[in-house]
Amino acid sequence: MLLLAIFLSFSAFQDLFGVRSLLFSVIYPFEWGLAAIWKSTLSIPGSLSRIRNLMKENEELREKLKITAVNHLRLEELQKENERLRQILGFKSRSYLKLLPAEVIARESPPGFHLLIIDKGERAGVKKDQPVLVEEGLVGKVIEVFPFSAKVLLLVDASLAVAAVDQRTRAFGVAVGDNSFGLDLKYVPLTAEIQEGDRIVTSSLSYFAPPGIPVGTVTKVSKRQNEMFYQVKVKPLVDFNRLEEVFIAL
Question: Is 125 left (phi over 0), alpha (psi -120 to 50) or beta?
C-alpha cells in the first residue's frame, strides 16, 4: 500500500510538472513581449528628449553657420572698401589737381538726363561747373549746389559736351554723350588722323575740365558721303554704373 501511494504521488507530481511546463511555454512569449513593450514605453521619454536636444543643437549650428557666412561677407566687403580707399588716396596724392573726395549718395535718371547726387556741397567749397572725376577719367560736372550736397551731370548725358583731343595725333573734336552710356566725338575733320583704339582726353579748350583728363577710347570711325566730319564712337573709360566715390576738382 505504501509503495502504491508513493507511486501515485510521484505520478501526480509528474503530471503537475508537465502542466506547469506547458503553461510556462504558452505564457512566456506573452510575458516577454509585454516586458519588451513596457521597457520600450519607459525609454520613449528619453528618446524624445534626445531628439529634442539634437534638433536644438542642429538649429544652433545652422544659426552659427549663418552668422559665420554674414561675417565672412562683411569682412570681404571691408577688404574691398579698404582697397578702393587706398586707390582713391593714391590717386589724390598723385594728381596735380586739388581734389575734394565725395561719396555718391543717390542717382537720378529723369527723362533725358543722367545725374548723381554727392555728399559734398557749398559748405565744402563745391561750385557750379566744377569737373568731377575718378582715377579712370572724367565723370561729368557739377550743375547744381546745395549746402551739403550737389548734383552732377554725367559725361554720357546728351546735354553735356567737352572739348577733347586724340592723345596720339592731337586731332580735335567735341565729346558728347549719346544717352546710352557712350560718347560721340563730333567735328573731327576728314583731314585728321584718328583710328580705333586711340585714347581721347580733355582739351585745353574745355570750359570746365582741365586738359589731359581721360575721356574714353575710340571704338569706331566712319564717314558719310558729302559730309565734312568723321563719325566717331567713343567708349568711356569710367563705368558710370559702379561709381561710389568721386572727386571734385576745386
Answer: left
Phi and psi torsions of 84, nearest 5°: -65, -40
- Which of 111, 130, 154 is the C-terminal boundary of a domain? 154
Residue 7: inside a domain: no
Number of compact structural domains in the chain: 3
Q: What is the DSSP string of 217-249?
A: EEEEEEE-TT-SBEEEEEEESS-GGG--EEEEE
Domain assignment of residue 10, yes or no? no
> CA 54, CA 160: separation in Å to the nearest integer?
65
Domain annotation covers residue 205: yes
pLDDT digits (tens, 9 = 90+) for 133-190: 998 999 999 999 999 999 999 999 999 999 999 999 999 999 999 888 899 999 999 9
Single-letter code of the amino acid located at 232:
V
What burial letters (b/e) apply to 70-85, b meaning 16+ CB within 10 Å? eeeeeeeeeeeeeeee
> Which domain covers residue 66, as residue numbers?
18-94
Please, what is the end-to-end C-alpha distance for the chain in angstroms?
141
Show the CA angle centred on residue 220, arms to residues 215 and 226, nearest 5°: 115
State the Cα–Cα distance between residues 90 and 177, nearest whole angstrom: 29
Picking from 248, 241, 244, the residue whose alpha carbon sits closest to that of residue 87 is 244
Listed residues 48, 67, 94: the one ending a domain: 94
Rounded to an integer, what distance in angstroms lies between the CA atom of residue 231 and that of residue 188? 8
Specify the pTM: 0.65
